[in-house]
Amino acid sequence: MTIFNKVKDKLEDLRRPGYYKKYDHKFTMVIDLDRCNGCGACVAACYAENNLPVVGKDECGKSRALNWIRIERYVEGEYPDVKVKFIPVMCQHCSKAPCEVGCPVYATYHNQDGLNVQVYNRCVGTYTCATYCPYDARRFNWFTYKREKPLDQQYNPDVTVREMGVMEKGTFCIQRIRAAKDKAKDEKRALKDGDVTPSCAQACPTGAMVFGDLNDPESRVSKLAKSPRRFRLLEELNTDPSVIYLKRVMKDGSGTSE
Amino acid sequence: MAQGHQNSNSSYKAVNEDIYGIISKSGITYYIICGLFGAGAGALFILPWAYQIYVGQGVTGLNVPVFWGIYLVNFVFWVGVAHAGTLISAMLFITETPWRRAISRGAETMTFFALLLVSLFIFIHMGRPWNAYWTFPYPTHRQLWTSFISPLTFDVFAIGTYTTSSVIFLYFGLIPDLAALSHTASGWRKQLYEFLSFGWRGTDAQWYTQNKACMFFSAFIMPLVVSVHSIVSWDFALSIVPGYTKTIFAPYFVTGALLSGLAGVLLMLSTMRAAYPVMKKYITDYHYDRIGMLVLVLSLMWSYLTFVEVATGLYANTSQELEHLKFKIATPPYMYLFALMIFCNSVLPLIYTIRKVRITVFGRFVAPVFILVGMWLERYLIIPNSLSRKFLPWMWHDYSPSWVEISISVGTLMMFISLFMVFVRVFPIIAIFEVKEDLGVPMKSKKHH
Predict the structure, then answer these.
(1) Could you tell me if B130 and B49 are in contact, meaning their C-beta atoms sit under 8 angstroms apart?
(2) How far A217 CA lies from chain B's nearest CA (Å)?
(3) Residue B288 distance to chain A (closest CA, Å)
(4) Distance of CA A218 to CAs A192, B122, B430, Å?
(5) CB-CB: which of A17, A64, A104 is closest to B135?
(6) Is residue B168 part of a domain?
(7) Using CB atoms, which residue from A131, A143, A239 is nearest to B58?
C-alpha cells in the first residue's frame, strides 16, 4: 500500500504545478448572490484598478472585451413571467487549475499565496490556458491597447500594462495583496483579516463580496464558507475553485431574489 | 508473386536516364507554374503573416471562447498528411512490400514538407512567436524551464523527433541515388550530388551500413507514426472541454491522419504522373490499386471510430456533451459541414471497393481531393467548434476565420506545392536504387542502349 500511496502522491504533485507544497495563504472570495443586485460596479472598479483597456463596440461584438470580471445574466421564461438570474464570474483561482497543466512555459502557476498567477513576461501566447479554462475567465491582448493622451494619466502605477500577444485574467488584485503583505512585514505582524480588499469587493455597494484567507479559521470568509447556502461554480469538474457563491434555493428550485 | 507493380523493360541505364530526365529536362511551363506558386506563397502567406505579427492576433477571427482557430486545424491537418510518407516508407519497408519502392521517395518528401508547414503553423498561431524558443528546454541564467506536464511540451518533443528522424530517413535513402546521378549530371548539380553523397562508392560495406541504417530508422519511425499523432490529439484530449476530452481521440486521430496522408499520396502521384509521363513506367495501376485498398480500409476504420465518438457522447448523456453534439450535428451551418465530412470520408471512399474505380482518374485524383477536404472539416468540427460551446452559456460565441487566416492557409498550401516542385527538380523523386532492385540484375543477353 505504501508504494501505491507514494505513486498516488507523486501523481497528485504532478497535477499541481508550481514550486510550493504548502501555501502561506488560501485566498478566497465569497460572493453572496442573495445580496448581489447585478449593478456592475465590480466590473467598472476592475477596469479602473487593473488598467484594463476599453476596446469599443466592434471588438465587444466579437466577444473580445477585456473584462476580468463579468456579470452573467440568464433570462428564463417568456415576457410577462420572466426571471433573470445573474452571477458575477471572474478567475476562480482553482486549486487544481486546468490552465496550469496546459502552459508549456510555466507562464501560469500557483504562487506561495495559493493564487493562480499569470506571468505576462513569460507568456508566449499558445492560448492553451484559455482553451482549457472551463470558466472562460481568461482574456487575450489581441492588439497593443493604448489609452489616448490625457487618459493615460488614469493608469494605476501598481499594475503592469500588458503588451500584444499575452494572456491575462483576474488576479484578486495581487498588487493589493503584495502591498498589504509588505505593510504587515514592516509592522512585524501576520497578515490579518481585512487587510486586503480587491477593488471589486471594495466597490460592491451591497457588500456581497467578501475576501480573505481560508486558512485563518477566524476570518470572515471561513465563517461564511460554512454557510449551507454555499456552492462553487462547476464544482463537478473537480477544479477546486477558490470562489465560493452563496445562494438560497427554494424547494421548487427558484432563488429568493428574482 | 506477380510483379505487376513495374513495367520491367528497362535497363539500369534507362532508369538512370529516365529519372535524371525528370530532374534536368523540363519546359519553361514548369518554372512558370513553380514561380507562380512561390509568388502566391509570398503574397498570400508571408505578407499577411508579417501584418499579423506587426498588428497582433486580433486580425484573426479568434474570440474569447474560441482561441484555437483554423491555424490549429491546419497544424493537425498537415501532421496528418505527413503521416503517409512514414507509413509507406517505414511500415512497408519493414514488411518488405515490393510496390513501396517506386513511391516511397515521393511520400517521404511529402512528409518532410508537410512537417515544415506543421512547425510553421505552431509559430503562426502563437501570440508572441518571437519567443517560441522558450518552449524548448535550454539552459538559461534565469533558471527557467519548460513544463513537462503540458501537452504542448509533449508536442515540441514529438514533432521535433519526428521531423529530425524523417529528414535523416529521407537523406539516407537519397545517398546511393545521388552518387548514381553524380555520374550523369553536370555543372552545379554534379558538385551538389558529389558533396551530398559523401563519397559513396557502392562497396559492400557501404550498402550493408545503408541498409542497416534504413532498417533502424524504419523501426524507429514506425512507433512514432502512432505516438506523434496521439500526442497531437492529447493537446485536445487532456483538457476538460466537452468535445475535446475523449479517450478515443488518439486512435481516432491516427486513423484520420493515415487516411488523409494516403489521399495526399494518391493526389501527389497522379499530379506527378500527369506532369512527367515517363513516370508511368514506374508508377503503375498496381500502385493505385494497392493504395486504394489501404484507403478503403482506413476509411472504414475512420467511420467506425466516428460512430463510436458520437455514440459514446450520446450515451453518456451529460448536458455539456449533448450541447456540444447538438451544435456540431444538428445546428446549421455546421450540420451541413458534418454531413459533407461523412460523405467525403465514409461514403465516397466506399467506391474503392471496386477495382476499376481504384485505377480510374476518379479514384486516383477526384476522390482523394474529397477525402482531404473531409479530413480538414473533421479537424475544423473538432477544434474551433467544440470551443464555441463550452460550459457557461453566457460566453458562448461562434467563430469564423478572417481573411488573414484564410489567406495564410492558402498561401502555405502554395508554398508546399512550390517547394515540392523545386525538390523534384533537384533530387530524384523516384528511388533509383530501389527501382533497380526490382528490375533484378541485367542479363548479358539483354540489349544495351
Answers:
(1) no
(2) 32
(3) 40
(4) 10, 49, 78
(5) A104
(6) yes
(7) A143
| C-alpha pair distances (Å), B387 with each of B65, B241, B245, B253 | 6, 7, 12, 18
Strand A27-32 with A209-213, pairing: antiparallel
**Which alpha helices (DSSP H) does chain A contain, by range?**
2-15, 41-49, 57-61, 98-102, 128-132, 174-186, 199-203, 220-225
Q: What pLDDT digit, counting tens, does each position of A58-105 carry?
A: 999 999 999 999 999 988 888 888 888 889 999 999 988 999 989 999
Tell whether A89 lies on the interface with B, counting CB pairs under 8 A: yes
With 0-12 / 13-18 / 19 or more C-beta atoms within 10 angstroms meaning exposed / middle / buried, residue B267 is: buried
Domain that holds residue B163: 12-136+147-439
Enter the DSSP assignment of A162. P
Q: Which residue has the cell 474505380?
A: B357
Q: State which residues of chain B have pLDDT below 70.
A: 1-10, 26, 441-449
For chain B, what is the domain count? Answer: 1
Contacts of B62 in chain A (CB under 8 A): 127, 140, 142
Decide if domain A25-246 falls under CATH 3.30.70.20: yes
In a domain, B176, yes or no: yes
Q: Running DSSP on this structure, what letter comes out for residue B131?
A: G
In angstroms, the CA B330 to CA B57 distance is: 31
Whether residue A52 contacts residue A67, with contact meaning beta carbons closer than 8 Å, is answered with yes
CA separation for the pair A198, A202 (Å, rounded)? 6
pLDDT digits over B148-179, tens only?
889 999 999 999 999 999 999 899 989 998 88
C-alpha cell read off for B82: 505527413
- Count the neighbouring beta carbons within 10 Å of the beta carbon of residue A170: 27
Question: Considering only CB atoms, which chain B residues are within 8 Å of A72?
Answer: 392, 394-395
Amino acid at B246: K
Yes or no, beta carbons of B127 and A166 under 8 Å apart: yes
d(CA A60, CA B101): 57
Secondary structure (3-state) at B243: coil
B447 falls within a domain: no
Which phi and psi (to 5°) does residue B107 adopt?
Answer: -65, -40
A108 vs A17: CA distance, rounded Å: 9
Residues of chain A with pLDDT under 70: 14-20, 253-258
Amino acid at A42: C
